[in-house]
Amino acid sequence: MKNPKHIKALAARSAEQQIPSDHAQLLATKWMSTTKLAELVQTEGLVYKKGKFSAIEEQQLRDAIDKYREEKQVTEEDFLDIIFGKKSKESTFWSDITSAIPQRPLIAVYHHVRRHFHPMAQQGKWTAEEDALLKQAVADLGQQWEKVSPRVGRMSADCRDRYRNHIVNRDIRLTGGWSRDEEERLTQIVTEMTVQQGKNIDNDIFWGKVSERMGGTRGRQQCRIKWTDTLSKTVKNDGQRPRWSPLDAFILVHKVDSMNVMDDTEIDWKTLLDPDWNLWSAHSLQRRWLTMKRSIKGYENMSHLDIMDILRTKKAQVPDPLGTGRKRKDRKVMSSEAIEEDPGVDDDHIDNS
């Protein structure tokens, strides 16, 4: 973020937001699995957040960690032992910092912090030597990523994602444009795994299995991006590829406005879709939003609310649905690969990203 003072102020305001005290205490003090959390959503009406941490949450987390270390006089060595030591989960550290982030479960904060402070984090591009080490480690140990990690010198999540997305079937994997036969095959596979089983066509997809059924010639990421960027909206539009319209832009701005968030990193883009406006994937909506935001001069130093005011004014009138107004050349949209994703999340079953 280019305006840290602004984010700090938003983080302070967000920390004041209240959720039911019993829910907040439960989230901050109990080590609950995803299955248990889902059960409590159904039985107790528990509300909690999933997905990537927002810029505001990241600031709240940094402030909580700094406060804990200052109050407890924790040295760097002791701090790393709290996070990575054998008795890490016994420390009150985790409950203390989780309490500062509304609606985040303890286990989510635990994994997020461990990824962020891991000594092997952010090591840059993989080398051919590392790939060779990874292949050999998996051959020796199987996909036990915590054991593979020290052999390779990379985080376990990085080893997992590198292997699944770039190593598996590398010798037969195709690159470049997709053929019509490939597109038809991918569409058939996804619809068989979702629509024909009463599942969501965008969210309930195991991309590793999709890649396997493609014969390994296209990887998990390739299949996911091809589907979300191109094929999904065509299938939903009766086989015709839809075009982004001024009306779509109008709807997007007003849906984002209705979210009542303090920063757009808090938005779960999947929640913007509804039965009458569902052609566009979450990635597509995020890219379109970034394109509109970046069209505003000086947006880098503006708050989300300031940007929202400008876009709300620009999109105040419902566009002509027949498109009889002056045509404009389509603005270039970023590739979904340029959208930052959480490298620590296993997207084999993407259900909230």
Summarize this, please?
The protein has 16 helices and no strands.
Question: Overview of this structure, please?
Answer:
The model is unreliable at 324-353 (pLDDT under 50). This protein has 353 residues and is mainly α. The chain has 4 domains: 4-117, no CATH class; 128-167; 180-236; 246-338, no CATH class. The protein is 53% helix and 0% strand. It has helices at 4-15, 21-29, 34-44, 55-72, 76-84, 93-98, 106-117, 128-141, 145-152, 156-167, 180-193, 207-213, 220-236, 246-258, 282-294, 304-314.
Structure class: mainly alpha
Coarse shape: globular
Q: Indicate the radius of gyration in whole angstroms.
A: 22 Å
pLDDT averaged residue by residue: 84
Q: Mind summarizing the main beta sheet?
A: none
Terminal Cα separation, in Å? 20 Å
Q: How many extended strands? A: 0
Number of domains: 4
- Roughly what percent helix? 40-55%
Beta strand %? under 5%
Low-confidence stretches: 324-353
Helix count, DSSP H or I runs of 4 or more residues: 16
Order of helices and strands: HHHHHHHHHHHHHHHH
